[in-house]
Amino acid sequence: MDISVIVPLYNEAESLPELEQWIARVMSEHGFSYEILFINDGSTDNSWEVIEELTRRNPSAHGVCFRRNYGKSPALQTGFERAQGDVVITMDADLQDSPDEIPELYRLITEEGYDLVSGWKRKRYDPLSKTIPTKLFNATARAVSGIHNLHDFNCGLKAYRNEVVKHIEVYGDMHRYIPFLAKNAGFKRIGEKVVHHQARKYGKSKFGLSRFVNGYLDLISLWFMSKFGAKPMHFFGFLGSLMFILGLLSVMIVGGMKLYHMYSGHSYRLVTESPYFYLSLTSMILGVQLFLAGFLGELVSRNSTERNHYEIAQEI
Predict the structure, then answer these.
(1) What is the pLDDT of residue 235?
(2) Do 126 and 263 have their domain in common?
(3) Strand partners of residue 191
(4) CA 146/CA 183 separation, integer angstroms
(5) Tell me, what CATH number does 90's domain have?
(6) Alpha carbon distance 175, 72 (integer Å)
(7) Domain of residue 244, residue span
(8) Same structural domain, 150 and 224
């Protein structure tokens, strides 16, 4: 099979028939063998009834229905697990992503040799309240991930080699950072294509401003796991040792200053009257706690079943 199209959706019943017909037309015009996987993320409208009708009408269309709303990442992961096409395309169900982009995305994967190609909606039909935070979010993601050639990490329209989606795990809200996940899994050929962005035709966006706060926290988590997930002592142990040494030196300085004033005949205060003494003790205590956190992290990591799991590209 050439292409698997994964469409995660939540309350998009109005747009689904038009989207299915559009995808089918593009596939027919270019002679692709394909499947469409509609992942219904616990919709409360009649999205599932529409999907059932579409699957009866089109043998290449399939549906998965969650019992409740889990989020976009679980929907994508479910689609990735079931995808059989050589190239996997993901797109949103709101008709803002154009299926006409599929042939070129397919070519970039199969002929240009990319592992992943992400869409870039250079011209967007979104309000400033959404576009400005999006620019800040993407600038931060580029800096942290080291993938500097992507302008839109969270674009729903992406293409992957099938091998990529089988070797990454999308969970929580990590769908925003799939290129980062792919890079961490060893897939370094990540490209970008300018794609057409259409104004929403039906309904309204299901995402609020809270996604930017959650996205920032997820980015920090992903950065930490990619750098120190298998060696937490290198992070916590270093910080803990640094804070403990600084605190110890500060205590010694405070004590040394008191001894100096005592033996030189100058007036002096009790060590416990100095705020620097308590700051130094706090630093030492935090240092010990951070060091212990790294030690416990190492114990957990040592017992992990994934500790010695490595992605192997080839073997002869």
Answers:
(1) 79
(2) no
(3) 117
(4) 9
(5) 3.90.550.10
(6) 7
(7) 232-302
(8) yes
Domain count, the chain: 2
Structure tokens at 62: 């399939």
In this predicted model, what pLDDT tens digit does every residue of 185-210 receive, in sequence order? 889 999 999 998 776 667 666 555 55
Nearest to 65 by CA among 57, 158, 55, 288: 55
C-alpha–C-alpha distance, residues 274 and 231, integer Å: 38
Sequence-ordered alpha helix ranges (H) in 111-267: 128-145, 162-165, 178-184, 210-228, 232-263
In a domain, 67, yes or no: yes
Please give the radius of gyration of the chain, using alpha carbons only, rounded to the nearest integer.
Answer: 26
Both 217 and 243 in a single domain? no
Provide the mean pLDDT of the chain: 85
pTM of the model: 0.73
Residue 309 lies in a domain: no
pLDDT score at 238? 84
Asked if 141 and 181 sit in the same domain, the reply is yes
Per-residue confidence at 310, pLDDT binned at 50, 70, 90? Answer: very low
CA atoms of 54 and 38, how far apart (whole Å): 10
How many angstroms separate the CA atoms of 102 and 91, rounded? Answer: 10
Percentage of residues of the chain with pLDDT beyond 70:
82
